[in-house]
Amino acid sequence: MKRYFVTGSYGQIGMDLIPAMLERYGKENVVATGRKKINPTFKELDVIYHRLDVRDHYGLRNLLVEYDIDIILHNASVLSATGEKNPQLAHEINFEGFYNVLEATRELNLEQLFAPSSIAAFGPTTPLVNTPNDTIMQPTTIYGISKVYVELMGEYYNKKYGLNFRSLRYPGVLAPSEPGGGTTDFAIWAVFEAIKNKKYECFLSKDVRLPFMMMSDCLKSTFDLIEAPDDKLKHRSFNVTGMSFTPEELANAIKEYIPEFEMTYKPDFRDAIARSWPQSLDDSAAREEWDWNPEFPFDKMVIEMLDGVSEKLGISYK
Ligand code: SER
After folding, report:
1. CA distance 83 to 265
2. Does this model's pTM top 0.85?
3. Is 149 a catalytic residue?
4. Which residue among the candidates 4, 10, 49, 143 is catalytic per the annotation?
5. pLDDT tens digits for range 217-245
6. Pair 98, 127: CB distance under 8 Å
7. In terms of domains, do 139 and 25 share one?
8. I need a labelling partner for 163 at 20 to 30 A (CA). Which of 61, 116, 140, 250 fits?
9. Are residues 60 and 109 in the same domain?
10. DSSP string spanning 200-225?
11. Do both 70 and 203 map to the same domain?
12. Which CATH number belongs to the domain containing residue 106 in this structure?
């Protein structure tokens, strides 16, 4: 069995990724790390957990050696909205942190480095409808710029040193748990607020279309890619998507289950970020090279989110 190391385990994705990895790879083979103290969920699952700041090059290396790690999933990252509030912090975590992980993978000759990219790696000069896998990437946020850095450095190390780098450009990821610091977070907050208060003030305009996927599809794409045979991969970074929708379309879908629900719109700086990102993605490279196939369309997602958030809050919406 291979041994896996995850950074940013406390993030929106990490909180679901870690339990799924324990099940898939065995709890003795997964080391979770994050900046905070271990949380009750990880404690209950008996996760091997260490506090680690990805800026700490030595701490990182010591853990990789101590646990004889084969594969890193580098999820630690400051997201788009938080990054715009503190670009200096985003630079430290997203650029320097990634560089530490990349260099440690090279020096220790680890088997693979998976580091997510994002739709944020694209920008206003990109063709934003059905965005191709290989296209113009001139993002305008520090987060997006850091993701282009991740992709290009990963490719560079792959060509120069044979480092097995892989990446997915995640769209907005949907799960019935609180997200933080992202531009796509509105879709999750809308469901929480629909169930709690039957109204939600959206920080994007009603007609901004963005690509999304359910968490289960996000985890599936991650496992599928990290387990794909290397000789099948022509790319190192892949578009993946499950659906696209606007805030208004989401509001209308929620209204079918909660007729009193009202979404109002008060666009802030995140609206401009969202408008610079793709509306939809062409994920044919992922489909061709490692059989990517999402399972959650829009309608199924809405029910799953409503049921999940309702259970989490202990408030019925029916
Ligand atoms: N969900 C992320 C964000 O909104 C995009 O990768 O920042």
Report:
1. 23
2. yes
3. no
4. 143
5. 999 999 999 999 999 999 999 999 999 99
6. no
7. yes
8. 140
9. yes
10. EEESS-TT--EEEEEHHHHHHHHHHH
11. no
12. 3.40.50.720
Averaged pLDDT, 41-45: 96
Please state, in angstroms and rounded to a whole number, the distance separating the CA atoms of residues 101 and 74.
8
pLDDT exceeds 90 at position 305: yes
CA-nearest of 300, 83, 124 to 212 is 300
| CATH number of the domain encompassing residue 309 | 3.90.25.10
Do residues 195 and 128 both lie within one domain? no
Ligand 1 site: residues with CB under 6 angstroms? 79-80, 118-120, 143, 170, 172, 182-184
Residue 95 and residue 181 in one domain: no
- Residues in the chain, overall count: 318
CA of 79 to the centre of ligand 1 (A): 6
Question: Which of 140, 142, 185 has the most ligand 1 atoms within 8 A of CB, as the residue to mutate?
Answer: 185
Strands (E) located in 75-140: 112-114, 117-118
**Mutate which of 143, 215, 241, 270 to test ligand 1's pocket (most atoms within 8 Å of Cβ)?**
143
Q: Are 271 and 208 in contact (CB under 8 A)?
A: yes
140 and 29 within one domain: yes
Q: Annotate 281-318 with b (16+ C-beta within 10 A) or e (fewer).
A: bbbebbeebbebebebeeeebbebbbebbbeeeeeebe
Work out which ligand 1 atom sits closest to the CA atom of 80: 7
